[in-house]
Design goal:
rod-shaped; 317 residues; alpha/beta; 12 strands; 38% helix
C-alpha cells in the first residue's frame, strides 16, 4: 500500500469521477484507475463501484475512506515537522530594538552580567546553536516598531513602555499594544542626571518629578517608552516637560547633560556618568523593557526558536 494510491482513492471518492480526479492529479485516467485497482487487490475488497454514471463508494470503501484520509494527514504532518527542523538550519529573523535598549542592566549588585547578559551576548550564544540563522537589527521608536510588527515588517522587537502598559483592553497603559504578545524583560526607575552647578543638583538625593518643570530636559524622542514614562509622570504631578534636546541612547543623554545642555532623564547610569544623580519621586517614573511579537500569525521556526532563547535568557523582573 502506497500513499499515492490512498491519495488517488481519496480524490476519486471526493469528486465521484476518475476523469476529474486525473485532471486534478495531473495524471492519465488509466493510470489512476490502475493504481486504485492495485490497492483494491491488496486489501481484498472493491472500494469503488464503477457501474453507474458516477463512481460510488462501496461499503468497504466508506469504511476505509476515513483511514485513508488520516494516513494522508499524518504524512503531511510528518513532512511539516521535518521542514520545521530544516527551518532551524536556515532562516532569517528581523529583530527591532528601541533606541538605546541593548538589554544592558542598570548598574548595581542585583543584575550581574552572568545573570543578565547584554543583547549582543545573547544573540551570539543563539547563533552558536543555530549558525544558519541570520539576523537583521533595526533601531527605531516603540511606536513605529509596533506598526512594523503588525504589518509583518518585523518578527520580534525589544520595546520600551510605561510600567502600566500591558496590552490589555481597559488598562491605563497603551491600548496600541492590543494584538501583540509581551514578555517583560527589565523594569527600571528613571533618574535625573544634573549638569554640574545646576540648581537641581543641590537636591538631597530625592527629587520630586514636578521640580523638573521649567528646566531644560534631555530625553529620548517621542514614541519611546522612556519619553512616555517621563511625560506620564509629569502629567500626574501636574507639570509639563520642556525637552530641549532629544537623543536616542542613554549614553548620549548623559553626555549631553555633562555638556550642560539640560537635565537628562534616564535609567540610573551610576557613578560612570560623573554627574549628580537624583532619584525622581512623587511619582517615580519607571520604564519597562519587553519583548513583543504579533499574535495574529504563527511564528516561523527561526523566529520561534529565537523567541524561546530570548525568553529563557531574560526571564523577567
Amino acid at each position: 500500500m502506497e500513499l499515492r494510491q490512498l491519495q488517488y482513492f481519496v480524490t476519486v471518492a471526493q469528486h465521484g469521477s476518475f476523469t476529474r480526479a486525473a485532471e486534478l492529479l495531473h495524471l492519465s485516467q488509466p493510470g489512476v484507475s490502475s493504481q486504485i485497482r492495485q490497492l483494491e487487490r491488496e486489501l481484498g475488497h472493491r472500494l469503488l463501484d464503477r457501474s453507474g454514471r458516477s463512481v460510488q463508494l462501496t461499503r468497504v470503501g466508506e469504511a476505509v475512506l476515513p483511514h485513508a484520509r488520516a494516513a494522508l494527514a499524518a504524512a503531511a504532518a510528518a513532512r511539516l515537522t521535518a521542514q520545521e527542523f530544516d527551518g532551524l538550519r536556515h532562516g532569517h529573523v528581523r529583530l527591532g530594538m528601541v533606541a538605546g535598549a541593548a538589554l544592558t542592566p542598570p548598574p548595581g549588585p542585583l543584575l550581574a552580567p552572568e545573570t543578565f547578559p547584554g543583547l549582543a551576548t545573547t544573540l551570539a550564544a543563539f547563533r552558536k546553536e543555530h549558525p544558519g540563522i541570520d539576523f537583521s537589527l533595526a533601531e527605531d521608536t516603540t511606536a513605529r516598531m509596533l506598526d512594523c510588527l503588525r504589518e509583518g515588517r518585523l518578527d520580534l522587537a525589544v520595546i520600551g513602555l510605561p510600567t502600566a502598559a500591558s496590552g490589555q483592553e481597559g488598562d491605563d497603559g497603551w491600548t496600541a499594544l492590543s494584538g501583540l504578545a509581551l514578555h517583560p524583560v527589565l523594569e527600571v526607575p528613571l533618574v535625573a542626571l544634573c549638569p554640574a552647578g545646576h540648581p537641581l543638583a543641590a537636591a538631597d538625593g530625592l527629587l520630586p518629578v514636578a521640580a523638573l518643570a521649567g528646566h531644560a530636559l534631555v530625553s529620548t524622542p517621542r514614541g519611546t517608552g522612556l519619553r512616555t514614562a517621563l511625560e506620564r509622570a509629569l502629567a500626574e504631578a501636574g507639570a509639563t516637560p520642556t525637552v530641549a534636546v532629544e537623543a536616542a541612547a542613554p549614553t548620549q543623554l548623559a553626555e549631553l547633560a555633562a555638556h550642560g545642555l539640560g537635565v537628562a532623564v534616564l535609567p540610573d547610569p551610576g557613578a560612570a556618568a560623573g554627574l549628580p544623580v537624583r532619584r525622581l519621586t512623587d511619582p517615580a517614573p519607571r520604564v519597562r523593557i519587553a519583548l513583543a511579537w504579533p499574535t495574529g500569525r504563527p511564528c516561523a521556526p527561526p523566529t520561534a526558536a529565537l523567541l524561546a532563547h530570548l525568553r529563557a535568557a531574560y526571564p523577567g523582573p
